[in-house]
Write a structure and sequence with these properties.
By secondary structure, the protein is of the alpha+beta class. It folds into four domains: 137 residues, ibrinogen binding protein from staphylococcus aureus fold (Roll), CATH 2.30.310.10; 69 residues, no CATH class; 145 residues, no CATH class; 118 residues, no CATH class. It contains eleven helices and 23 strands. A hairpin with a 2-residue loop joins strand 1 and strand 2. Helix 6 packs parallel to helix 9. It is elongated, with a radius of gyration of 34 Å.
């Protein structure tokens, strides 16, 4: 369900308790999400404002978010005017689905200025608008709306800011009763159809003021899973017939939306990578087919040599005009030889010898190119698999790997001198006193195996599948740890949906880079293999390092 005005009112109350908030940093994490890193109550956290058509919300979060290297013009404008500013007041009108954030900041002359940030969370119309509060004019918006799209409310730079039109509805917290047949959505501000259904269900045993008092007292979010879909509100939704789980307000939003939005962020950040990897895979598959045809043709080079030698045995080598000759082959059988009538028999013989030498040299070249094409196709199929399991940081690693490999051009940055060398992330968990570390893409795998792991650490990788390199800091772990490592290596691989996946393991010192191979490609010397059914235990606490 979408956010309704009643829930947004609880969000406003929770945010007001944290005021004032100083804005330390502003980042763009997707085309519809902006994060304000704020300092509130002696703690640092992230104020996330999402204007996604489905996942729109405003929450405080303790998560770390990966931001765009090249933020858009609206974010640059927010940075120019709001950095180091203070959010000192938050308003909501008539329980409607928008919040007005009042911000004071100082300009380059250190004069105080006041701004209004209108976070309008109304489904497909969700938007974020920056307004100069002193003039009442719009400075810019995340989504611009010209007059020909909405003549009643233009949202463009310089236009006069008009708040969302007020709805002539009652305050539900002041009502004492409701009629049985009336629509609560039409009568009360902030009501959604889902909340109306819950209120109607509860009215069989409770009064309307009692229900609204429970809503007013709530500081939690109750989530009900119905047919794989999450429904939520600030009170348990009993009419759905399933038990609701209770979460702190902002934690509940993270529980519902973070993973879904993370997938959208990855798709947003790496859509071009998916297209590129898929295009390259198809290109090399087609190239392999053509090379195989050429290789099959080159295998007949001995026939060209035999025909050339037989033609030199013909009596009249200078004769022209023949299109075919039938001579006795080395096997004693008649052999028909095609000729170019414009050339003499001798010249045709030389042509066959030229073809023989060309095919002999070409056979070696084609064999080499065929091997390279197969390696490239396998490499890009691996990239596709890695992108399917990647988070935003992993997708950035894959992009960097393709840039290093010369497949993509490096993205231009506004301040290249200030750009820091990005740390390659890895993933880690603790088990029975052991530290298990793994990567999710070629760059991370290569860094882990050849720069982080120690020679006697045990190394794991799913056999014949693209997947993670995994290290455990024990050369001889117990069986439970061994099986857990094999399970993780199989799960974070192309074989995660298969059963009885073979996983190779050996000391790190037995792992060697493939000479001339791609990043992350290795060969093994002495190793063992274990077969495992991939399954990820949800209780495992995997952290990014």
């Amino acid at each position: 369900m979408a956010l309704d005005g009643i829930i947004l009112g609880k969000v406003k109350d929770a945010l007001q308790e944290k005021l004032p908030m100083r804005i330390n940093r502003i980042s763009e994490i997707s085309s519809t999400e902006i994060v304000f890193n704020v300092h509130a109550e002696n703690t640092r956290c992230s104020l996330v404002i999402s204007c996604h058509s489905v996942y729109n919300r405003i929450v405080l979060s303790d998560r770390n978010y990966s931001s765009y290297d090249n933020p858009g013009g609206f974010v640059m404008l927010l940075r120019k005017y709001l950095l180091n500013g203070v959010i000192y007041q938050i308003d909501q009108q008539d329980h409607d689905r928008y919040l007005l954030l009042h911000i004071r900041a100082r300009d380059e002359l250190y004069d105080e200025r006041h701004f209004l940030l209108s976070a309008e969370l109304m489904g497909k119309y969700a938007n974020l608008i920056l307004v100069d509060e002193d003039t009442g004019r719009i400075m810019d918006a995340l989504k611009r709306i010209p007059p020909f799209e909405n003549s009643r409310r233009t949202i463009l730079s310089g236009a006069l800011f008009q708040p969302v039109e007020a709805q002539d509805k009652e305050d539900p917290y002041q009502a004492q009763s409701v009629e049985e047949e009336e629509s609560l959505v039409k009568r009360f501000s902030g009501f959604s159809r889902l909340l109306e259904n819950e209120v109607r269900y509860r009215l069989q045993q409770e009064t309307f003021p009692q229900i609204m008092q429970e809503i007013a007292d709530s500081d939690s979010l109750y989530i009900s899973e119905v047919n794989g879909k999450s429904e939520y509100h600030v009170i348990p939704l009993r009419h759905l017939g399933v038990e609701a789980k209770r979460y702190p307000l902002f934690e509940g939003f993270e529980k519902i939306y973070f993973d879904q939005e993370e997938k959208d962020r990855i798709r947003d950040l790496s859509a071009d990578l998916f297209r590129f990897a898929r295009r390259q895979s198809k290109h090399f598959a087609a190239k392999i087919t053509k090379l195989q045809e050429s290789y099959e043709e080159a295998l007949h080079l001995s026939e060209d040599r035999e025909k050339g030698e037989l033609l030199f045995t013909y009596g009249d080598l200078q004769r022209k005009g023949l299109s075919e000759l039938e001579l006795t082959g080395y096997d004693g059988e008649p052999l028909k030889i095609s000729l170019n009538p414009k050339l003499s028999v001798k010249e045709n013989a030389n042509k066959y010898f030229q073809s023989y030498h060309k095919k002999r040299k070409g056979q070696e070249y084609i064999s080499e190119q065929l091997q390279l094409a197969r390696m490239e196709e396998e490499y890009f199929r691996g990239i596709e698999e890695q992108l399917a399991m990647a988070n935003a940081a992993d997708a950035a690693d894959i992009r960097e790997e393709l840039v290093r490999g010369g497949y993509l051009k490096a993205q231009k940055v506004r301040n290249p001198k200030k750009k820091k060398v990005r740390k390659i992330p890895l993933y880690r968990l603790q088990c029975k006193g052991h530290t298990i570390t793994f990567g999710k893409n070629n760059l991370q795998n290569d860094h882990l195996t050849f720069h982080v792991a120690r020679p006697n650490d045990l190394w794991f990788h799913a056999k014949d599948y693209h997947g993670s390199h995994l290290i455990v800091d024990d050369p001889d772990p117990d069986e439970e740890t061994l099986r857990l490592c094999a399970c993780l290596a199989a799960y974070f691989s192309q074989g995660r949906f298969s059963s009885s996946v073979p996983v190779d393991y050996c000391p790190v010192k037995e792992v060697k880079k493939v000479k001339g191979g791609k990043t992350g490609f290795v060969t093994l010397k002495a190793h063992k293999t274990i077969y495992i059914d991939p399954e990820l235990d949800p209780s495992l606490h995997i952290v990014s390092i």
